[in-house]
Model the fold of this input.
Amino acid sequence: MSNIKGRLKGKLTESELKEVQSQQEKVNSILVEIGYIESRKHALLHDLADTNEVVNNTKKVLNDKYGSINVNMTTGEWTKEEKDVDN
Done:
């Protein structure tokens, strides 16, 4: 091993090359997984926006029918919101 650092060219040992390749494969695998997760996140955010629109439409329909109410999500019972009790 005569002055390896001073050389302009050389070659890794087989075990060093395998180690570096293995590490790079792990990095690439993680990056692919992150890409998949980000893509899934993007799709879920679109689904959330669509669902929020449906929820808001339902709220409007119920508000038109009952006024401003609070709904018990377990029983379906509703009570007028305090600001509307005086009306």
In short: The chain has one domain: 13-85. Residues 13-85 form one domain. The chain has a mean pLDDT of 93.
